[in-house]
Amino acid sequence: MNRIEMVVIGASAGGVEALCKLLGGLGPDFDAAIAIVLHLPPGEPSLLPRLLSERCALPVKEVEDKEPVQPGMVFIAPPDYHMLVESDKSFSLSRDEPVLYSRPSIDVLFESAAIAYGPALLGIILTGASADGAMGMKTLRSHGGQAWIQDPGDAAVQVMPSAAIAAAGSDLIGSIDAMMINLPHINNPDPEKTKRV
Length: 197
Fold this sequence. Notes:
Layout: E1 6-11, H1 15-24, E2 33-38, H2 48-55, E3 60-62, E4 74-76, E5 82-85, E6 91-94, H3 106-117, E7 121-125, H4 134-142, E8 146-150, H5 159-168, E9 172-174, H6 176-182
Helix pairs in contact: 1-2, 1-6, 3-4, 4-5
């Protein structure tokens, strides 16, 4: 198993609750960087950094252009900007056209991170009402990354996880509870603690 250096997470409708629950299970010693795209309405400040900061033991911030990726931190795409990961392991922000009507786009994050991190990348698709993330997850897997997808039956909205499963398959399809058990152990798997669902 390759060591995971970055976790990329995509979510849309129902995603705030799912993200708060998933990241709330992480301790301060989690050593991979986390980058999140949540579909948000443009023109309004995002409340997600504050909401996650209240529930997550890791530092949480809205990403800035050219900011270096740092382990053990949670980076969130700002509203109305695509978030990309560059080959030098820094973030960049773009106002390019929306992808599947979305900016930020999950596909854009996943595809750029796949090129930068290859097998050291874990992608997670959560609840949502569009197919954004499906092609990005396919690219991620083609570069050797791991794919986890929320069980559509566990998701508030099934469209996004169902589309990702159909397009890319998955290394784990499970509930948020199952992911909460697995995520803290991605770089130190413990068969007694880890449940694959």
